[in-house]
Amino acid sequence: MPSHPASTVRMGLLALLWGSSFLWIKVALNHGLTPAQIAVTRCALGAAVLVALARARGGRLPRSRATWGHLAVAALLCNAVPFALFAVGEQTVDSGVAGVLNATTPLWSLLTGVLLGTDRGVRPVRLAGLALGFAGTLLIFAPWQRAGLTSWGALALAGAALSYALAFAYMGRHLTARKDPTAVSAAQLLAATAWTALALPVAGPGPLHVDTTGVLAVVALGVLGTGVTFHLNYRLIADEGPTAAATVGYLLPVVSVTLGALVLGEELTPRVLAGMAVVLTGVALTRGPGAHRPRPARRHTPSAAHAQERSAVPGRVLSGRPGRVPAGRADGA
Q1: For residue 237, what pLDDT is reported?
Q2: What is the DSSP string of 267-321?
Q3: Distances from the Cα of 306 to the Cα of 36, 41, 161, 301, angstroms
Q4: Where are the alpha helices (DSSP H) in the chain?
Q5: Residue 304 above 50 pLDDT?
Q6: What digits encode the pLDDT tens for the residues 100-113?
Q7: pLDDT tens per residue, range 179-201
């Protein structure tokens, strides 16, 4: 969990805005927008917000080709793919359930870390939490009861959560050490806008029969649920690392289920509620006390000493771990 009060506030605000995104997607779908239209519009609006914020702070978009290459990959994993999958999935799945399935992001993050060897020293309690979380997800899916588009919609949402987990790891390794996270966030959403615009003809733009409610929903999704949220997420990854940032998924089901029930009148069955409880229990086990082994002390060899000297530079990335931004620094400073 976040170690600094400012990070705790960011995580709470991020959960509120991110959790409400599932509501805005559902409303936009119900009022005339297609999944492809929602994906490209939210990317474009989010990019506009972050470009304006970066310029107001005197930031500049990256100029390096290598950086833009990393941004293209991150935009695909963190924006284009999950945005499209969430819109597709919510055609047949309630917004509250979508938030629950998105809560599996920390579980995917742990699993990919174990498989890639970047998350060592995994204790049995974390592995138990991983297994429990996926069992809860399976309970929500209920593939023995569902067929056709409904089950495919749930799988699309799980795929979006996996894409987020991969994106967090990639961004933590290649992008969060940049000097201006606001400008980097803006650049990534510009790349995501290009990705989704390229996919629009393939997906089929579809007829545009949107009403005022649909417009307001997609604007809220783009400005708050994408632009502001993405900036907060980038800063959280920079301050706390990708795994800690992924734990914002703890709070998303609470927000999405509450809003879905209050605003859309969505009904939750006992099976889905039980699955939610199992997922959140599994996630808690992967992050709770006793889940991490203490790291062995490093030997002070000349190479290690040199590495420690390099890691003292704010924002530097060492061995794939994001440099920690000083607590008193403002965003982008």
Answers
A1: 72
A2: ---HHHHHHHHHHHHHHHHHHSTTSBPPPPPPP--HHHHHHHHHHTSTT--BTTB
A3: 49, 47, 37, 9
A4: 5-30, 35-56, 65-75, 81-89, 95-102, 105-116, 124-141, 149-174, 181-203, 212-222, 229-240, 242-246, 252-263, 270-287, 302-311
A5: no
A6: 788 778 778 878 87
A7: 677 888 899 999 999 999 998 88
